[in-house]
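Shipment paperwork, digital attachment
Item: protein structure file
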Amino acid sequence: MLSRRSLLAGLGAATAGPALAQNPHAHHAGQFERLNQPGRIDTPELHFQHAVTESPAPKAARQGRWAPRAPLPLPRTEMAWAVEYRGRMHLVGGYAEQRVDRPYHHAYDPASDRWEELPRLPRGANHVGIATSGDRLYAFGGFLEQNRTPHDEAFIFDGTGWKPIRRLPEACGAMACIALDGMIHLVGGAIGSDNRRSIDWHLVYDPKTDRYTRRQPMPVGRDHCGIVAVNGRVHIIGGRVDSFHTNSNLHHAYDPKTDQWAFLAPIPTARSGHGTVWFGERIFCMGGEGTNRVYGQNESYDPVRNLWESHAPMLTPRHGMGAVVIGEAIYVAGGGPQMGGGVKSAINEAFTLA
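Attachment content:
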């Protein structure tokens, strides 16, 4: 087991040189692990068959660049999302070490390029919905089996430990969660076990009253969506309708003042399990998966012009990873390098527009 101590990384953005540019997989040695077999491995061969990076969107004037950063202490995937909390990237739950219900909680500090293990989630799960509001980190639901069989528990983290809050009205996993104006929006997700299916629910959790209220459902039920809050509206992008075989390119924005959803320009690459962040006055979406596909496409949406453009693709296409903005960079850690959850990664890469 890992002790609660700072974990040093071997690689930083400053180490990226010509050799890496020629071979972006040079830094991958031993950063992967199979779900059904212990032991570190190099980049799996299936990754190269599944990885795609070409976007149908026009190229942006500023392409940006990616660079490797300190890898996770252990390969992880299907955390669902990551959040920024007190200047660090936090990853909660997911697949790790041959289980799909891990309670692990790691935090990454870009300033020192180090990872630290923090108090673990009280209920281990994958596809946990997480968000930050004020000076607290919140975790909602998640799956107890591999991408199915959700639970209804919810927790709050105050920087020192976790404690329970009111349970969800219904057990759910793979929800898209975001804080806006002191409220936390929980949108979409999936329920069930053998009959797993996407749902269109839209809940709002009030941290002050510890209660949930229902709002206008999203127009099409889906899970594994991207979510971000921009200019007082909640954007939901992509996701899957029951399965990644039926990925969506839909892009909707919700206005809390009118309790209505509006349809916006679809994302060029339909995908699910992707990272979504607000960065440089645009919404950026990177990674994700589809049928025999793991995406490296890095596409941005301009809300002023209602259009998408493409940027430099990820060095390592993957899905089910965490993506956050801290300072002048997007950090993307963990994730699956091929379709499905069979392989986990410790990869951590940063994107800048400079």
